[in-house]
Amino acid sequence: MISKPFAALSIAVGTGKIGYVFMVDGDLMDWGLSLAAAKSQDKAATKVAEWIKFYMPSVIVTERLTLHIRKSGQTLRNIEAIEKLVQDSGIHHVDVERVQFYANKYEEIQALTKRYPQITNWAPRKRRLWESEHPNTVLFEALSLVEEVK
Question: Which domains does the chain have, with CATH numbers?
């Protein structure tokens, strides 16, 4: 009997960015992000629907909205639009509370690149106080979310 591989699409939303990682049986296969999709709920839902159609995952992982979440505004509206789309898709959905196990996100990124060296070139350097957060950080948020499900 041949069983279907366990394919997970993990989606993370940050200010001005939406990213994903795609894993098959625990192996990181692909990743990407969109800045344009973060501009509205409709664009966010449309882009995520494209990713779902392309990857055909067994499970979709998203961030759970809690009282302690530090996201607001358009980011929250995008998360809600994605949640609705995923629930309507009929694909198994797991929402995970984002828990920080490291002193900061850059230490977490460093740890994740050791486990998944193929994404190392996408790791942003630690930002200076006056710099904006690099868009690629959302990829590592998505990776962290799926790590909690594994």
Answer: 7-149 (3.30.420.10)
